[in-house]
Amino acid sequence: MIIRTIAINTFKEAIRDRVLYNLLIFTVVVIVASVLLGRLTIGHDLRVIKDIGLAAMSVFGVLIATFVGTNLVHKEIRRKTIYTIISKPIHRYEFVLGKYCGLLLTVFVNLVIMAVVLFSVLALHGSLLAQAMVKPETIGYVSLIKAIVLIFFELMLITSIAIFFSVISSSVMSVFFTLSAYVIGHLTMDIKEMGAALESGALKSLCSLCYYLLPNLENLNIRAEMARELSVSMRFMSYAIIYSLLYMAAVLLISILYMGKREFV
Amino acid sequence: MKRIWIPALILCIISIVGFAFMQTRVDKIRPSRERLEEKLIYIPETRFLKTASLGFHAVLADVLWARSVVYFGGHFLTDKKYDWLYRILDAVTTLDPGNVLAYRFGGTVLSLEQSDAEKSIELLKKGIRNNPDKDWRLHFLLGFNYFFYMDDHASAAECLEKASKMPGHPTYLPRLVAKMYAKSGKEDTAIEFLRETYRQYEDENVKEAIQGRIDILMAKKQIQPLQNAVGKYKKHYHEYPKELRELVRAGLIKKLPEYEGGQYAIDSAGKVEWIAESDLQWP
After folding, report:
1. What pTM, to 2 d.p., does this model score?
2. B100-221, which class in CATH?
């Protein structure tokens, strides 16, 4: 109950902060991509729109999770509202989980609206191509939905990382750390492959350790498969989702443990 | 808080072990090397590359350069197919035209391992264009490609002459130039080229690839002495030997030369051949 109240409050606060304005930019990006890039890449109109749309969904989602998430705890401290909260019979874990759920709700609503815009533009563009007697490529709604579902889990993971850094460091540093985690998360496979090519056993082990401990966001990225029109198995989807849920749980638990120790004076 | 501390810690450890385990499951379905290669289709065309890198030319070049070495190593140890190698190296050298090592690496392995001398020459010419007078090895490798793959001794000699006028070149280069002009002993000259190239590398995979080629050339060099021994055998026994071991039994050679990567064979017309295990195009 307390978690729900904090979550709804966090969501309302994000809306009040005009976070959803980014949707306007997203809509413009997707429409411009559909009009301009579609024409430049003959025969791949829909694919280009899908690629840019998905990439934009991921980037905007991460930016929201980072800039809103990393500010959540600090804003309460700055406004001194944290003292009101901790003086009430609210557990620290309820506070962290409430904030997390609220932010996740914001990210989710954002993602749903972006998905609707993307689907609408694709459908419209597809019908325009059909009217112009050009046989359009298949949109591939199923794989598109799969990609969006995995983007949501990627954002879920990034949101938990943003909350974690928000709890342990300053506002500016949290933004830096979270965005770094996002970039590193997409390069983890390189760490593994480069480690495998090294001769030193110690360095190999270090690379392997980093590979398994750092977030691997490429598990949740199936855009390359979409571009090549390859199907993604449900088994892979479920493994990737379980991976992200476990990672998120670990990060949130560490955040809760740290929050429990933190003194607010 | 104290009440949840221990269960939270236990749960946290379980989650960490859990996601590391799930990563191994994901890797089984989608190995990271294949995944990295899938991402290569996203390398934009060379003319858009600098714009697409958003000013981070050097960083992107470094990432791609490291990836090309890993890509080569991975395929060298498995299927020996390097379909994307030129594309990655072209991207690396477009983003960072001063990366001489990338030109040298491509100039060596594209011709030796992928048997694509044209691409190797293209990359080396790009390297020389972008780095004139910076590294004699670029001219040296270009010369090797002209000499060995294109049979263009004049161009090869020209390249080596340029290399021999640059600082740091080995003392024997002028001798190689003379050999080019004299068009003498293709195998011997190629071995000299490759031995020098071998010395230039530290990467074990590249060294192994070069050594493999040296072995093949050494093996081919022995064909003529074996052929001569077969001629003597025929003169003495009035027939060709059914197998080359008969030359040893007849005392015409001390032992049959052995080299890795293939074996000698003799056909019914008495012609000695080296049958390589690799299906590479090798002149």
Report:
1. 0.67
2. mainly alpha
